[in-house]
Amino acid sequence: ADPQVPYEIGVLYGLQERWDAAADALADAVRLDPEQAWTRVVFGLVLMEAQRLDEAAGELVEGARMDPEDVDAQLAAALAAAAIGRDGMAYEMLERARFQSVDDDQDRMAAVEDRLDAGHEAARTLLVDDFGPSMLRARLSERP
What we know:
Blueprint: H1 4-15, H2 19-32, H3 37-49, H4 53-66, H5 71-83, H6 87-100, H7 106-118, H8 120-140
Helix pairs in contact: 1-2, 2-3, 3-4, 3-8, 4-5, 5-6, 5-7, 5-8, 6-7, 7-8
């Protein structure tokens, strides 16, 4: 089966903010193509919107690991890991982002690092209220 079909269905539900339906469709897409980093990151962001943060963190970290050049994925994974108390993982993902970053990334990197240093709730707030939703909106309107 073609993983693009459930991915597109997931995007459609995501654009409608039907997070549980989007998560179900994207889970199918990930199952059909587990090595697709972009799909895993979008899935993680949708799980975040569905308030399933533990699962979201796992998918974001996995997707970020698959695509080390995706700085935003590394930063989202860092925030998600910190939000669920996985501090070591959070700082590892931040360092992975730093390794790939360019000058344009510096403000976001600093903001994420400040939140990691400020604790789990601060990281969760930045991810859930700001960074995650804007990243998800962008990715729902793009194709890898």
